[in-house]
Amino acid sequence: MDEGMTHDALVAVINTAAHLIRHYQPPCQNRKLADKLMVAADALAAATAENEALRELLFLTHASEGHYLYGDDGEMQCNACGCDFKRDSPQQLNEKITRYSMAALAKESGR
């Protein structure tokens, strides 16, 4: 994947190609490629739905003392550690939660 292309941009490209294939049948010589693209688009849709469900579950279980969650209007954010469960990568979520937890631990131990 082009490093400049975001996940959302890649999803949009695949979905657009799948839409075009569904509505405008390609010539026979491109049918195998079109079939592979349709399988990829279906797999991407399933993976995206699963990703969204897991992010929502993580967001809902993140709530605890000091972590006040903002979920109005479809957002999934924590005001304490700055996690954006909709947009942050798993690595970013891990870094933010770890940084917050380490600071809270240091504060609790009086450092």
Overview of the molecule:
A two-stranded antiparallel sheet has the order 1-2. It has 3 helices and 2 strands. It folds into 2 domains: 62 residues; 48 residues, no CATH class. The protein is elongated, with a radius of gyration of 20 Å. The model has no long low-confidence stretch (mean pLDDT 84). A hairpin with a 6-residue loop joins strand 1 and strand 2. Helices cover 61% and strands 4% of the residues. It is mainly α and 111 residues long. The relative contact order is 0.07.
Give the integer mean of the pLDDT values. 84
Oligomer: single chain
Structural classification: mainly alpha
Distance between the termini: 44 Å
> Strand count, sense and closure of the main sheet?
2 strands, antiparallel
List SSEs in N-to-C order: HHEEH
Evaluate the radius of gyration: 20 Å
- DSSP strand content: under 5%
- Helix share bin: 55-70%
Shape category: elongated
Q: Which residue ranges are poorly predicted, with pLDDT under 50 across at least 5 consecutive positions?
A: none
Number of domains: 2
Number of strands: 2
